[in-house]
Amino acid sequence: MLIAEPDEMTSHKNNAFSSGFRLLWRRQGVLWWIFAVNLLCGALGTVPGFLRLQHALGHSLAGQPLTNRFDLGMLAELFRLPDVSLVRYTTNSYLFAFIFFVFILFVTGGILESYRADRRLTTGEFFAASGAYFWRFVRLLLLSIIPFVIVIMIYQALDKAADRIGDRAIADQAGIFLGWGAMLIFLLLALAVRLWFDMAQVRAVAHNERRMWRNTWRAWRITWHGFGRLYGMYFVIALVGWIMLAIGLVIWAQLPATATGAVFIILELIMLAQIATRLWQLAGAMSWYQAHAEILAPPVEATATPMPLETAPAAAGAANVVYPPQDAAAVEPPPAEAPEPPSTDPGPELPPADA
Amino acid sequence: MQSCRMLCLVAMVLLGSLIAPAQSPFAPKVTGPLSQRVVAYHIDANYDPPKHTVEATETLTYHNLTGQPLDTFPFHLYLNAFQPKSTWMHEAHRDGSFRSSSLAHWKPEDYGSNVVSSFQVDGMGDLTSQMKFISPDDGNPDDKTVFQVKLPRPVAPGQDVTFRIKFKATFPEVIARTGYKRTFLLAGQWFPKVGVWWHGQWNCHQFHALTEFFADFGTFDVNITLPKDYVIGASGVQVGEHDNGNGTKTVAFHAEDIHDFAWTADPNFKVVENTFSGSVGPVRIRLLTYDSHKQAWDPYIYCVQYTMKRFDDWYGPYPYAQITVVDPPHGAGEAGGMEYPTFITGDSGWFIPKGIHLVDFVTEHEFGHQYWYGMVATNEFENGWLDEGINSYTEVKVLDNVWGENTSLINLLGAQLGEREEQRLGFVDVEDRDPLSKMSFQDMSIDTYGGITYGKTASMLITLEKIVGEPTLKNALHVYFMRYRFTHPTTEDFVRTVNEVAGQDLSWYWNQAVYGTEVFDYEVLRADSQPVRWWDENLKEKRGETEYETQVILHRKGDFIFPVDAVVKFENGESTREHWDGKERWVRYVYRKKAQVLSVQIDPDYAVTMDRDYLNNSQTKYVQPGAVHKIATYWLFLTQFMAQILSWLV
Fold first, then answer.
1. Distance between A87 CA and the closest CA of chain B, angstroms
2. Chain segment B525-535, per-residue pLDDT in tens
3. Interface probe, candidates B644, B645, B646, chain A, greatest A C-beta count within 10 A
4. Which residues pair with B63 in a beta bridge?
5. What is the structure's pLDDT at B106?
6. What is the rounded average pLDDT of the residues A12-40?
7. Alpha-carbon distance B381 to B72, whole Å?
8. What's the pTM value of the predicted model, to 2 decimals?
9. Does the CA dihedral B276-B282-B288-B294 come out positive or negative?
10. What is the mean pLDDT of chain A?
11. Structurally, how many domains does chain A consist of?
12. Looking at the domain assignment, is residue A303 inside a domain?
């Protein structure tokens, strides 16, 4: 496996960060599409509660304290009264949040294929790619539980220690800050695990890899070798997401209580930014992989429909993989060609210095 | 024996030098006595911080003012409640939690006790063996929070009897308003306390999880020996301090015309002092707090000052020289939010966003108890609502006056919550369980007790303003305070006073609000308009020209009968206010106008806080989308956000 030399990686890091953004921008149809589904799932999760509210408040003046300001007492009333009991309707929100989760699990293959090919896929191609990789990504998801559980256990241990130290300290801040520190460590570790498995997904798509254990291991090696740059890219993108969330909330806090329309727009822009940063990470990972990682296998022979995709003219090192046929037997790609070793030729003799 | 007497004499002389009440326990313009001083406590206590124990000798002189001979005396030993088989622990565990303690498991540090090693009576000898634990409320043989001693001969009316009690108090880790946390100690209910002779018999209940305390007025002289580096605060005023030369000091406190004595100590306390100048002169405010709570210092002082000002103006003067405010350290929240005479505990933290009035909410309430409990010393076992409830009502009045009716508790990023709504929400779900007049310790559960005594009383009194007017009710409370301070009034005393000041018989109201469990709920059952000439097939309805008959039906859904107002608005801008006495189950109003009804609203001023359901108090012709759309917008966002967070796992 050829890994690019560190010097090359430095420039490629900047490229992956910005090329990932450019890829996201070029393929922004994916972003809008995911956002639309997210909005739809949110709406479907909200509708039953909305209808219940409509029934309870639609022809009542009791909602005025909520319209003109945001009275928590009246909000509590809506959750408290057995006739309204909004708590019941939160189940729908959980359900559609889960449905969205399953949806993303399904379409991640299509998203990555779209980024890999760097062209607009037809609907059929997109969903075919999604379907082709779905069960592999389910297996990857199950595999990822192991490191995530380890990270959670680390967090719980740190948090418990923070609690114990905080309980013994005189000042409140000790326990609180240690707790925040434990949470920060948890988030950073979780980000690393996410990066690793994103790389596994990227590699699975790039290589039409079917063996997820092997894929996970190879993705680990790839991630480890490029960890600094990759993690830095992921971290910065995540930070951008948090900053955009903070900016959105600051703007939201300035809006008047009655400006429901403006609130809706701001909150949806916040959601769009959150989804965009996540897709940016995936796009960045794909860009980095195409620029840095092992020389990818030559095209696999297609044995059945659908018709193979032709890829766009590839940049140096870009993959050249045929779209995985749905019922084809797995074909082992020929081994990667070893790269040319660096030249030992010292080059032309330098002219002697002027006397 | 003689050497023992000599030692006692020397000790008395030495200690006497501590107790030179250089500072009066009263405000400058006040002289005592203010109460019938039934008891005089003199306690010498030795605090051992590593063991969390206090070993003490208590000399209690009881003045028999009952008018009859007494030969049996019951005493409270409240700290014995913190044992697994006590009545308190049984009730708290039964109800699932107590304040912030879950009580799911027993831990050794939960253990507390008060053990009497010697009980002597002047002129009657050692009666330690005569001590018998009793359980007058539930017969629990394992509950040791009350003991009784029968004297060999009675104490005649008008005579005194002196008890000399040696005891050891072991404090639990903070629970139920008392205990330790790290180096902090809040010593509440720590000494043997004699019961109250009330209504012809002893009133000395076991310690219950639901309720608090009851004791007689008297004087307190307490000397506490503790490590030199500890900062100490207590009820009353400090009158002396002596370095014992062995790493400890003895601090002397004196208080008059109070009925309980609490104290606190921690080497890490920071002392912040200020004053309030009221109608009887300046009162010292002494705040014991922490460096990490610096953000809360000013709010504490400000809150105490504005509360004292309003109580002074509205109800009567605070007669004592000092109020001590304790800000518990983190992890000791169970010691917070409590009142003792001239000594209160608050609640804060290292960071409380501006707009959340937590410090005010707790501090105002606890200071209010100086009036309703501290001076008007009702029986908290039996009539919890007379102190907690009236105090919750005055809390609403004070906080609304300072912070605004809709924002008195929370005003942050557009979210608002008023104190009166908070009180209402606390009780509407439990209002049909127990009447206020029921013995509080027998209420169904801790939740019911909390909802009824605090929330229902506050809401009941706010609703009463609609009948008698706010100024009249304020005056009634002023009269009640001035008349019954330093005594033990009852429900009937309060009710009678309000009737008297209001100049009307309000028994129809008290019977429901105090003695009953009727549920208060009025609704607009129907509000619609039909053309008068509804039979006319050629009728073409025209705004402003067609005559309509409007029907409005108001319905009393609950059993609580109360007069309500309803405002009916029409499309032509007209509006009419109806007043219904609520006696029948429903009432119909009919109008004939060239306009249709636009809206009907019962209690448009939101003055009737006892109504358990605000949603059915109005009807409108047209859809009111504002609130629905707003809530749905946030709900949508939260669902989307949750979905996105979940998808991050993929």
1. 12
2. 999 999 999 99
3. B644
4. B160
5. 79
6. 90
7. 21
8. 0.88
9. positive
10. 83
11. 1
12. no
Query: Residue A343 falls within a domain, yes or no?
Result: no
CB proximity A311 to B under 8 Å: no
Rounded Cα distance, A263 and A249, in Å: 10
Task: Give the CATH superfamily of B384-513.
Answer: Neutral Protease Domain 2 (1.10.390.10)
Tell me the angle at which helices A72-80 and B419-427 cross, rounded to the nearest 10 degrees: 10
- Cβ distance of B615 and A62 shorter than 8 Å: yes
What pLDDT does residue A312 have? 43
How many CB contacts within 8 angstroms connect chain A with chain B?
Answer: 206
The fold of B522-627 is Immunoglobulin-like (2.60.40)
ipTM of the complex: 0.85
Specify if A333 maps to a domain. Answer: no
CATH architecture observed for domain B2-268: Sandwich (2.60)
Give me the domain span that covers residue A206.
19-292
B541/A contact by beta carbon, under 8 A = no
What would the pLDDT profile of B208-267 be if each residue is shown by its tens digit?
999 999 999 999 999 999 999 999 999 999 999 999 999 999 999 999 999 999 999 999
Query: Packing angle between helix B358-368 and helix B390-403, nearest 10 degrees?
Result: 140
Answer yes or no: are the C-beta atoms of A282 and A113 closer than 8 Å. no
3-state secondary structure of B592: strand
Backbone angles phi, psi at A300, to 5 degrees: -90, 140
Domain edges within chain B: 2-268, 384-513, 522-627
Which of the four pLDDT bands, split at 50, 70 and 90, describes residue A79?
confident
Instruction: With CB atoms and an 8 Å threshold, state whether B626 touches A66.
Output: yes
Q: Is some CB atom of chain A closer than 8 A to the CB atom of B1?
A: no
- Taking only residues 194 to 233 of chain A, the set having a beta carbon closer than 8 angstroms to any beta carbon of chain B reads 194
Q: Flag whether A139 is in a domain.
A: yes
Select from A47, A60, A152, A252 the residue whose CB has the most chain B CBs within 10 Å, as the one to mutate to test that interface: A60
- The answer to whether domain B2-268 and domain B384-513 are alike in fold is no
